Amino acid sequence: MLLKYEIKEQNDKKSxxxxxxxxxxxxxxxxxxxxxxxxxxxxxxxxxxSAGIKLVTIPDSVEEVHQFAFQACEDLKKIEMSDSxxxxxxxxxxxxxxxxxxEIVFKKNNRxxxxxxxxxxxxxxxxxxxxxxxxxxxxxxxYDYVYSENTMA
Length: 153
Description:
By secondary structure, the chain is mainly beta. It is built from one helix and twelve strands; from the N terminus they run ββββββββββαββ. The strands form two sheets. Strands 1, 2, 4, 5, 7 and 9 form a six-stranded mixed beta sheet that branches. A six-stranded mixed beta sheet has the order 3-6-8-10-11-12, with no helix packed on it. A hairpin with a 2-residue loop joins strand 1 (3-10) and strand 2.
């Protein structure tokens, strides 16, 4: 197994949370099931500062992406996922400066996932939004932290 994980138990239900990788990878394809248990989360700092990762694919079974999950993944360019994620921490993608595209397949009409993701990104990003009746490309510009107030006090 290329991924590290732990078994979580809540309300007598067991599931898997991804906690990291065992060796450097350029592509991370998180499986929907490991050892007959659903993969439902990406843990805090699971892939933080992992060099070389360019693509991450997150399956529909994942419902949570925790704090700093992909923080400072310098080479990460693309994430493929669905709108099944109900909790996406606003620090999950911090300092992913190379991130260019996020592809989201909409199955549950959870459009709030877009704002959840944008809260953790401040560089230009292209969203490829795939709906049942078509596809939309939306480009969000860099967030500008530098501003000058030009009003009299």
